[in-house]
Amino acid sequence: MKITFIGADHEVTGSCHFIEACGKNILVDYGMEQGQSLYENAQLPVSAAEIDYVFLTHAHIDHSGLLPLLAAKGFRGKIYATEATVELCDIMLRDSAHIQMFEAEWRNRKAKRSSATPAYIPLYTLEDAVSAIRLLHGVSYGETIDVCEGIKIRFTDVGHLLGSSAIEIWLEEDGCMRKIVFSGDVGNTNQPIIKDPSTIDEADYCVIESTYGDRLHPKEKTDHASELAALIQETFDKGGNLVIPSFAVGRTQELLYFIREIKEKGLVNGHGEFQVYVDSPLAVEATQIFQKNSIECFDEDAMKLIKKGVNPLNFRGLNLAVTPAESKAINFDDSPKVIISAAGMCDAGRIRHHLKHNLWREECTILFVGYQAIGTLGRALVEGADEVRLFGEEIGVRAKIKTMSGLSGHADMEGLLDWARGFKVKPEMTFVVHGNDKVTESFAEKLESELGLKAYAPYSGTRFDLMRGRFEYEAKPIPVARKKKPVGAMSVFDRLIAACQRIMALARKYEHCANKDIAKFADQINSLCDKWER
User: Fold this and answer.
1) Span 326-346, mean pLDDT?
2) Cβ contact 4:45 at 8 Å
3) Which of 89, 75, 6 is CA-nearest to residue 44?
4) Minimal CA–CA distance to 236: which of 264, 267, 265?
């Protein structure tokens, strides 16, 4: 009964934890690293084909984004998540695969033009994403699931994203019971649309995130609708566009919620029924999923609107751009408008086209409404870059760059401490993950000094014995090499090796089967080998 820390250790993205218990291999999240990576991640201790289950906290790509790669390498177990998370993953993993494939195609075209040999392989393909999606198994909040003998799980709403959850895991092995809780990403309180985080009564061990473990959100409740209305008014009065790089899932829906309120209260004057464009097919689909899951996931204020017959995410003047032609047409319209487009950190997607058309215009405003990871274009703009490179062209930054303070899907330091206070029985050990290098350490100290919890911030590769309550291995940080190849990109030969590993994993499961079944399986494998040896 052990846990090995794999990803988002002294780093914010790439969440992944590996549990060995009851003869099963389990992952809690398998996320993609985004932005700059500081430390090397340990490899999974077993092949993908030997993983039995994945327990997924929520759909954000830094928690779910490598599931297609896992499927490509031979994983065929169940992925447990809330029903809303399953629906969001269905669109988000497909979108991620499209991005991987488009980038590979673009890089290889560029190589051809420079007479180099095209050799860029996408991290995974759409087929891989579909394979992972087929393994998703949706459950309801609060439902206790008997995964297999000795393992039970339950998902609790933590108010970070539609369908986001903390996961309680009960493990029973050799007469010993241990309960470990994974916080997932804990949400901020008083967010629009979704509920506030719920707490959990008890755990033997807790793995808690620390994204904002060193900062505090403004104490006063911010009137985001009025703040946004003032920016729209100022920008439109100058004849410019308000361009908002926004995460397609979660933040875009919050913005629609605020703009509906702005229009209802008439907070923008002199610009009639101003137009708002959501330029992201993913955001359009995600909004539909939000509306579908309103009863289980929406908070009291959003439900009051729905009961009145008001759609909290729709209003007059809302335009949804799905096709490339609809996206391009937005920048041929000279009238002032709000443009909401993905990706939220400006590292990919249609937002880069809108930045190219608007960054150089003094009358425009670029509004950032979410976290900008180190190494992303969004971070460079927020930090005051005078010029950026887009599509091979240097673009001067003359537009006003603004950020909306207090609008965060993550709990701050006090919010995280409040969530940890929810334990009526203190965990024996709390592991601090999913935070920048020094933040994990400082938040671990906070948990000890403020709550009296024993806390530790592991580096990737650290292994802990849950049954005996002791470390088997405490990893040291391994800095990332400066020139790093795409993590895990698979060649055709790699896929062949992964297929063979899947056969080996399956063969091990036959150990206690009837001899005739083992013999039949062996004969089939030998027959396949004979065929290809010819």
Assistant:
1) 94
2) yes
3) 6
4) 267
Q: Just give the CATH number of 2-216+409-490.
A: 3.60.15.10
Q: Given the DSSP bridges, would you call strands 463-465 and 136-139 parallel, antiparallel or unpaired?
A: unpaired
Q: Is the dihedral of CA 254, 257, 262, 263 positive or negative?
A: positive
Answer whether the bond into residue 343 is a cis peptide, omega within 30°: yes
The DSSP H or E segment spanning 93 is helix 83-113
Looking only at the bridges linking them, the beta strands covering 387-390 and 393-396 are antiparallel
What b/e sequence results for 146-162 when a residue is b if at least 16 CB atoms lie within 10 Å of its CB, and e otherwise? Answer: ebeebbebbbbbbbbbb
Q: Residue 376 is encoded by which pair of tokens?
A: 């992303």
Pairing of strands 365-368, 165-173: unpaired
The model carries a pTM of 0.89
- Beta-bridged to residue 3, according to DSSP, are 19, 464
Residue corresponding to tokens 């204020």? 301
Alpha-carbon span 160 to 62, nearest angstrom = 14
How many CB atoms neighbour CB 333 within 10 A? 12
Ranges of each domain in the chain: 2-216+409-490, 224-403, 493-533
CA dihedral 256, 159, 171, 464 (to 10 degrees): 100
pLDDT of 513 higher than 70: yes
**pLDDT tens-digit series, residues 337-370:** 999 999 889 988 899 999 999 999 999 999 999 8
Through-space distance between the first and last CA atoms of the chain, rounded to whole angstroms: 45
Task: Please list, in sequence order, all residues whose beta carbon lies within 8 angstroms of the beta carbon of residue 436, skipping any fewer than 6 positions away.
Answer: 10, 11, 12
Query: Looking at the predicted structure, is the pLDDT value of residue 39 above 80?
Result: yes
The pLDDT value given to residue 297: 92
CA distance 421 to 429: 14
Question: Mean pLDDT throughout 274-280?
Answer: 97
Q: Is the model's pLDDT at 408 over the cut of 90?
A: no
Q: Which amino acid is at 117?
A: T
Each residue's pLDDT tens digit, 236-273: 999 999 999 999 999 999 999 999 999 999 999 999 89
Mean pLDDT of the chain: 93
- What is the DSSP secondary structure assignment for residue 262, as one 8-state letter? H
50 pLDDT band, cuts 50/70/90, is very high
Give the 3-state secondary structure of residue 355: helix
What topology is assigned to 224-403 in CATH? Rossmann fold (3.40.50)
Q: Residue 527: how many CB atoms within 10 A of its CB?
A: 9
Mean pLDDT over residues 305-318, rounded?
95
Structure tokens at 313: 């995410």
188-210 core/surface letters (b: 16 or more CB in 10 A; e: else): bbebbbbbbbbebeebbbbbbbb
CA angle in degrees (0–180, nearest 5) for 56-60-63: 45
Distance CA 366, CA 260 (A): 20
- Per-residue pLDDT tens digits for 458-494: 999 999 999 999 999 999 998 887 544 444 567 778 8
